[in-house]
Amino acid sequence: MSKLAEQIKGAAKKLLTEKKVDLVVGFTEGSLPLRGTPFFARTPEEADQLTWNLDCENNLANYLRKKPGKVAVVAKGCDVRSIVALIKENQLNRDNLYIIGVPCRGMIDRRKVAELLSGQEVLAIEENGDTLVIKGNNSSVTAKVADLLHNSCRDCSYGNPVIYDELIGELLPEKEAADFNEIKAFEAKTTAERRAFMNSEFSKCIRCYACRNACPMCYCEECFVDCNQPEWIGKSAYNVEDNILFQVVRVFHLAGRCVDCGACERACPMGINLRLLTRKTVKDVKELFNAEAGVNLEDKPVLATFTNDDPEAFLLKE
Amino acid sequence: MIISKKDIPGFLDKLISEYQVFAPVQEGSFTLFKPISSGTNADLTAANTKLPAKEIFFPQSEKLFSYNATEEGVKVEEVLDEQKKVIFGVRPCDARSLVLLDNVFDNDKFQDPYYLTKRANTIMIGIGCNTPLSTCFCTSVNGSPFDTKGLDLLLVDIGDAYVVEVVSDKGKSLAEQAGLAAATDADKAAAAKIKETATITCQVNTDGLKEKLDTNFYWPIWDRIHEKCLGCGACTYLCPTCHCFDIVDDAKDCNGCRVRNWDSCAFPIFTLHGSGHNPRTSNKERYRQRIMHKFKYFVDNFNEIACVGCGRCINNCPVNLDIRAVLEDVRGSEARLDS
Predict the structure, then answer these.
(1) Interface size between A and B, measured as CB pairs under 8 A
(2) What is the pLDDT along chain B (339 residues), one digit of tens a residue?
(3) B204 touching A, CB under 8 A?
(4) Residue B93 lies in a domain
(5) How far is B169 from chain A (nearest CA, A)?
């Protein structure tokens, strides 16, 4: 990891020194154990603060829209897929973007780490190859990195950036696409069971909109929840119906566009299982149209195209 | 006074018969203040609840009154929660936040009956913090792990019992009614020792902060400080002192209710005018407002910093925008950046 961090610093410094870019968006060490935090380097000196670790979990594609000048971004697989999707939606200009691609094995989920110390505060985390040493006040636990990854990372088969201008480190071996077992199990439930789950899960929602704001694909100038004429949705949070409406519309807006980076779920302070909904659309889009969002620059956005082969089961009773 | 830990469920059960009792309750990977129906539901093991105790007095969405238009005219009914409450297991930072919020909801210009009725009818039983988190910085903002401000009783965990310190008359009569035994000198000494050893490791220097904020509104510091902020409301909604709200009508035709909802300075529509003009056009102005409100305007108005150092914003920010680092940057800010 530290080797990758050095290479990222070097690449960023070079770009800024040679004035090829005005800004490098990457990560620096955060203020909590093993926490990478988004960082904006505009000078070679600032680039010295860039880093790379197992908790560079934020999707940096979120910061690229409307940035003036030439911008370089330190981008792992999911960040690049979001960038590709945003380029296709004319939200990013490829010519003004320099992608420093970083192959990614997955980022660790601090909530899973916290569970290992059973309630004690995590005070330090040391990376040690494929294992982590997690230290609390009077205890220390060693665990495998692979067991602590975010679920989205565990299921991701696009750790390698699909496009880049420069690659840091080496491409990883291809990984098979994960199954959709969790989604299938949810689909197998009865309508009433699914509804009960939604009611219980979204009664936790505090409408802070961290999920929406963490998502690189949520970029409407005015979100439908903020509009009050017409008022599409109740503004109060005591009504779980409105919380569900918010999430369902958000997720529908993302159908065919969501790259399953998991940023929404990671941002949620209330621990709501948001990926269940977004991944359901990922599964549907894959099954119906054999498409995935942001995996190449050539395919048009799947829900913005029509072909004679498109399934019409929802239109016609055959 | 003293109460054994094994007697806590019984103590709470007795209170439940007379009061609506709120206590931290396990909800998945964290705890939340919820009304409990059995004393065994209270869980004091977590350092603090995910959402602060403020939501009991100032709920995220609060019905103020309902209205119905009938042939005879409009009927308006006020919704005032007058239920007697006990908040059990509140941390000193959250209790102090209510003392700060009292300034907002009860001053020479406004008295908010919804908040004040609940405050007047509530007994606060706090629990001191034997092992504060590394992100707790209450001592930097006039608090402490065993602060009694805003409390009626304070519990000090001495192992298999809590030493109960009486803070107010309300607390005293509740403790007497419950028939709590007197603490021995040894118990009191144990409590004193615990208080001594509990240390806040995190210090945030606020020297000169207010003076800087008095002058730096237009300084370049604000151009960069917000840059990673996503503009979500997680920090404000989890904050025990944030208190901005919006009032809406939840109505169909002429029947409905007026509701007060939490609002957040981080949101784009927070200051959006009816004309379409927005004086806070970007995250920069919005994030500056959050810092200014807590560390300058509130100080101007009430002579107190509107932060109790609970660390919730630090632990829950999706991008690790850490208020401690921001305050340090603000303190070091210059009228111009050299670079």
Answers:
(1) 110
(2) 999 999 999 999 999 999 999 999 999 889 999 999 999 999 998 999 999 999 999 999 999 999 999 899 999 999 999 999 999 999 999 999 999 999 999 999 999 999 999 999 999 999 999 999 999 999 999 999 999 999 999 999 999 999 999 999 999 999 999 999 999 999 999 999 999 999 999 999 999 999 999 999 999 999 999 999 999 999 999 999 999 999 999 888 889 999 999 999 999 999 999 899 999 999 999 999 999 999 999 999 999 999 999 999 999 999 999 999 999 999 998 887 544
(3) no
(4) yes
(5) 35
Disruptive mutation site among A29, A138, A202, A206 for chain B (greatest number of B CBs within 10 Å) = A206
B189 and B241 share one domain:
no
Domain count within chain B: 2
CA distances from residue A201 to A187, A205, A275, B27, B43 in whole angstroms, order as listed: 16, 8, 12, 11, 21
CB contact (8 A) between residue B248 and residue A235: yes
Answer whether the bond into residue A68 is a cis peptide, omega within 30°.
no
Rounded to an integer, what is the distance from CA B183 to the centroid of its chain? 30
Q: Name B2's bridge partners.
A: B163, B181
Tell me the pLDDT tens digit for each residue of A46-98.
999 999 999 999 999 999 998 999 999 999 999 999 999 999 999 999 999 99
Domain of residue B51 covers 2-197
Angle between helices A191-202 and A240-254 (to 10 degrees): 100
Q: Is A90 left (phi over 0), alpha (psi -120 to 50) or beta?
A: left
Q: Are A100 and A165 in contact (CB under 8 A)?
A: yes
Interface of chain A toward chain B, CB-CB under 8 angstroms? 30-32, 35-40, 42-43, 58, 62-63, 111, 114-115, 119, 121, 123, 137, 204, 206-210, 212-214, 222, 226, 234-239, 263, 266-267, 269-271
Q: Are A41 and A26 in contact (CB under 8 A)?
A: yes
Residue B336 lies in a domain: no
B174 & B222 share domain = no
3-state helix, strand, coil in chain A (%, to 5): 35, 15, 50
Is residue B280 a contact partner of residue B222, using CB atoms and an 8 Å limit? no
Interchain proximity A121–B27, CB inside 8 Å: no
Q: Residue B203 domain-assigned? A: no
Q: Considering B197, B225, B252, which residue would you say is the last residue of a domain? A: B197
The alpha carbon of residue B237 is apart from the nearest alpha carbon of chain A, in Å, by 7
What is the interface pTM, i.e. ipTM, of the complex?
0.95
In terms of DSSP bridges, do strands B161-166 and B2-4 run parallel, antiparallel, or are they unpaired?
A: antiparallel
Residues written for chain B: 339
Q: From the list A30, A40, A62, which residue is nearest B320 (CB)?
A: A30
Task: Note whether A208 contacts B233, CB cutoff 8 Å.
Answer: yes
Residues B191 and B215 in one domain: no
Nearest-angstrom CA–CA distance, A204 and B60: 12
Chain B residue numbers touching A119 (CB-CB < 8 A): 45-46
Is the separation of the CB atoms in B77 and B110 below 8 Å? no
